[in-house]
Amino acid sequence: MQHLDKIYINGEFVTPHGTEVLDLINPVTGEKAADVRLADEVDTQNAIAAAQAAFQTFRYTGKEERIGYLNKMHEILKRRRDELVEVMMDEYGCPLYFSSLLIDGAVQDFKNMAELMKTYDLEPIVGRSKVRLEPVGVVGVIIPWNSSNGFIATKVSAAIAAGCTVVIKPSELSARQTQVMMECFHEAGLPKGVVNFVPGKGTVVGAEITRNPGINKITFTGSTGVGKTIAKGAVDTMKRVTLELGGKAPNIVLDDADFETVIPQALFACYINSGQACVAATRLLVPAHRLNEVNDIARKALAESVKVGLPQDPTTTIGPMVSEGHYHNVQNYIRIGIEEDKAELLAGGLGKPEGREAGNFVKATVFTNVDNRMRIAQEEIFGPVLCIIPYKDVDDAIRIANDSPFGLAAYVNGKDRATIDYIASRIDAGRICINGDFHDDMTPFGGFKQSGYGREFGAYGLDAYLEPKAVIG
Ligand code: NAD
Asked: Any idea which residues are catalytic in this one (predicted)?
């Protein structure tokens, strides 16, 4: 069993001042896998002080030096890729295919930022003046467990490129993944204090980052509720804030789509990361007159190709939920769906799948003929629960898609490009993914409405770490 009792401040692995110890439970077996000693407010203050001191030098480093660190990180992560995938599967149960995808993305993030910096103009001329794009300062990075090292890579690669220093607060459920990432940064040999890690509780470490005047910007990924708390707290010291929050993505299937292909794909788009994904396509919008056909195809695909199983099994679609508490949250939503009595339970339902009683496994669940006003269609469940919602015509589909507090991602499947473009222009979401294409590295990622504000990846992502200073005359 692993005992994790070091945090990373000012280029050194140190014993935390905090004394609280948290047990980490294996989501597959329900048994204790490790324990972690958590950082507290004092540790957070020490990390912020180190990042502030380092910023005074790091802010003036040139592009070449920063590109060197980004490339070094890329090489180190590439070398330790399999280990990063392994610990991600083991610690929170993310299935192999998806852990691999996320870690490969993390490795690439550093390379992409290094490449972008080669051509990114940090001193553009506007009118007759020069605009200096200067690093925003010390950045607090607060992230969830569902792709911990992926989020660190996206956010910290941009921060380093901009010349910022960082204090990272990963989820308390990601301590083992964090340990590997801390080792990677240490090996990269960045100047002391540029990157600091304080794993601890949100209400302790996260709250200190939010209120401490030494932090200039917070980049947060997590739930909409916590995002609002951080935004309110951050305004007192006028911190810049980027919020990547929850989602309830619609997936519109048009009448001219190939249903035999698209409906099975729609199940996988909902069940990515075992349904624990902000971009999961959890609302499947289908033409009302073809609902029975959709149900039949979905039933068949569930039986033939959706597998709830061990994360390490390459054929597994859905692994366990991250924690017992979260398992119960998902069960509660399935109960609400059944009790609301406006929809039909097509597959899955309450309880654990046969043979998977030990861990936090949830059945692959589908509700059909769902009314979009139901709670299961409005609220983020963050588990393998799909709502099939019938629509009358294209404008009705757009209306339903937009009838949500969220606006992170949306999906459209069909043949007629003009109809697809019409839908893409009318859906309020930060990302519209067409016919199965779901990611393009350098395009902006972020939400409309209560899915947050600000963007990540590529030049849009880098902009968020820079303050423009106009030098006139
Ligand atoms: P969460 O909001 O509970 O926690 C996220 C982080 O915030 C954790 O590190 C937590 O410790 C910290 N935190 C909690 N309370 C805090 C407080 N008062 N002050 C400061 N920090 C605090 O989210 P979670 O359960 O870990 O993750 C799931 C959520 O993340 C879902 O809502 C999901 O949609 C969202 N998410 C969004 C994106 C995106 O890019 N938009 C990506 C992945 C996950």
From this structure: 244
